[in-house]
Predict the structure.
Amino acid sequence: MQRRVAIWPFRPSDRYRRNLAEALRTETVGGVIMLLATVVALVWANTPWASSYDALRHFEVSPSWLGLGHLDLAHWASGGLLSVFFFLAGLELREELAHGELRDPRDAALPVIAAVAGVVLPAVIFLLVSRGVEGAARGWAIPTATDIAFALAVLAVTFSACPAPLRAFLLTLAVVDDLIAITIIAVFYTDELSLWPLLLGAGCVAVYGLLQSKGVRTPWLYVPLALLAWYFTQRSGVHATVAAVALGMLTSSRETPDERPTNAESADHALRPFSAGVCVPVFAFLSAGVTLGGGALGQVFTDRVALGVILGLVVGKFVGVLGGTWVAVRLGLATLGEDVHWRELAGVAMLAGVGFTVSLLIGGLAYDDPAQSERVTTAVLVASVVASAAATAVFRRRVRVRRREAAAG
C-alpha cells in the first residue's frame, strides 16, 4: 500500500481556522493586518523593484464579456473587495439604528452632530487651503471620512480601559461618517450615469430587501442577488460600494423564534474575517504604495491640495468633532455619558483624523493625474499617522490618570 505524501506541508485544522476567523473579527487584529499591508506596499514602492509594484497594481483583469471597461487590480480592490467592507458598514449602521446608539434620537444626537461637523469643517479647510489650484475642488471630500477599522484598532491598543460609551461614540461617529461619505460618492463622484443598469441594480437591491423582510434565510438567493446588484451598479457609473451599503442596511436583524442567529449576524460572522483579513489589507496594499523619498515627500508639504488633505484630517476633524460635541451639549441637544471625560473625547476627535480607507478611495476617484493622486495618498498616510500619534498620547495619559484615580479611590 502506497503511503500518501502531503503536497502542502501545512494543513490547518478546523480548530485553527476557527481561531483565525475569531481573531480576524477583532478590530485590533484587522487594524494590524491593514497596517502591515500598508508598510509592505510602502517598502516595495521605495525599493529598486518599485516598477514591479506598479506593474502589479496596473495588471489588467477585464474580460470583455463583463462590459465593465478596462479594470486593473487596483480598481478591482477599490470597487470589488472594498464593497465587502462597505456591506459590513451597512450592517453596523442597521444594527445601530435597530439596537444601538441611533435607536433613540436623543442618544443618537451627540455622535450624529459630531459626525456632521466632522465632515463639514474638514471640507471647508480643504477648499480654503487649495483655493485657486485648478481642479483641486474635486477632492473636497477626501478629508471627511474616518476609518472605522484603523481608528478602533488604535483605540483598543492604546486605551484598553476605554469606557463603553466612549467606544460606542467612536463607532457610531465612524458609521455615520461612512454613510455620509458613501452618499457623497454617489452624488458627487458619478460622472456618467447609465439609467437601465442603475434600474436593474436598484431592482436587485429591492428584491434582496423584500426577501429579507419575508424572513428568507438561504444565502443561495442572497449571494447571486448581491453580485448582480454590484454588477449593474458598477455598469451604471455609480460606485458599486453604494449598492453594498444599501444591501447591508437591508439585511434583516429581526430575531427568530428558534433563537438562531439573525441574517445580519450570520452575514457579519461569515464576512468580517474575509473583510479584515483579505479585502481591506489588499486594498491598502494596492493603494498605499507611494514614493517617500526626500523630494517626493517634500512635494506633499508644498502642494496645496495635499496640505488641504492633511490639515482637513488633522485639524478639521479634531475641531469639527470636538466642537460639534461641545455645541450639542452646550445647547442641550445631547448629553455626555457618565463615564466620559472631555479629554478622552478630545482623543477620539483626534482619532477621527485617521481617514485611511475611505479617504484613499475618494482620492482615487477625485483625481486622474497619477502624480496628484500619489501626493494625495501620501497626505492621507501622513495625516493618519499624525492623528494616531496625537490620539495615542492623549489616551496613554488618560490611562495613567484613571489608574491613579482607581488606586486613590
